[in-house]
Amino acid sequence: MKNISINKIHPFEGHPYKVLDNEEMNNLIQSVQLHGIMSPLIVRPLENKTDEYEIISGHRRFRAAQKAGLTEIPAFIYAVNRDKAAIMLVDSNLHREHILPSEKAFAYKLKYDALRHQGTSSQLGTKLRTDEYIALESGESRNQVQRYIRLTYLIPELLDLMDEGKIAFSVGVELSYLDDNVQYALLEIIERDNCTPSYSQAFHMHKAMREGTLTMEYIEELMSQEKANQRETIKLSSERIRSYVPKKYNAKQTEDFIIKALEHYQRYLKRQREREER
Predict the structure, then answer these.
(1) What confidence tens digit (pLDDT) does each residue in 132-152 have?
(2) Which residue in 230, 180, 181 sits closest to 201, CA to CA?
(3) What Rg, from alpha-carbon coordinates, does the chain have?
(4) Is the separation of the CB atoms in 197 and 205 below 8 Å?
(5) How many contiguous H segments (helices) and E segments (strands) does the chain have?
(6) What confidence tier does 155 reach under pLDDT thresholds 50, 70, 90?
(7) Could you tell me which residues come within 8 angstroms of residue 172 by beta carbon, excluding any fewer than 6 positions away?
(8) pLDDT value of position 124
(9) Residue 70 near residue 36 (C-beta atoms within 8 A)
(10) Which residues in the chain belong to E strands, given as ranges?
(11) Which residues pair with 55 in a beta bridge?
């Protein structure tokens, strides 16, 4: 370990984890200002560079140090190539408490590419496929790893909607099979109509794309269909209806009672209109 000039340290090119300037970052900056960097970064020497380093672990601490005005940062130096560094970077962050779907997607993709580049079987002494090895290490199924990697084919705007919880994971996987131009066209509909596709809609778009029958008219028709989770619901507090509904009624009986009351009131209004028209 040694202290390294902050100007000689560089973020890992293409690293998958977001470094956000949020409240958590502000707290980290304050901690750095008071106590310095308590946990050293992990870096590797950059090839063909003199005394310059690439971050393997510690991108958030690095950003906080920059914001806090530090000129040097303590770091452990590991002389590893980029593929090994990529694997170390992914593994050091993958089990964080809060990790976004897009972060996990690009993390698995980065590790997959690094393992493939260095030769998974020969390097690891195993006959496992690359995605099988990642699944074994991550505790997830091979299919789930593949599904996360599929998300890297989503356009950034749809990925953001996934990270915000507005698009479900399974929906994102289906949409990832659509061409970019189709995804952008779908995004326009999402923003215009303030709606997101259901799994069924995404599945049928993927199916039509695969069969070569997907058109904008079909997408418009699909997205115009009412979804169960977007139907308007009305809630009545029990206090408001308690004096009208027998106390012994259960939820189903109460609902039937209210519907019958509404039907009766509707007939009453109809009679009133008929009298006025005479």
Answers:
(1) 888 888 888 999 999 999 999
(2) 230
(3) 28
(4) yes
(5) 14, 5
(6) very high
(7) 101, 151, 154, 158, 159, 162
(8) 54
(9) yes
(10) 2-5, 9-10, 41-45, 53-57, 72-77
(11) 43
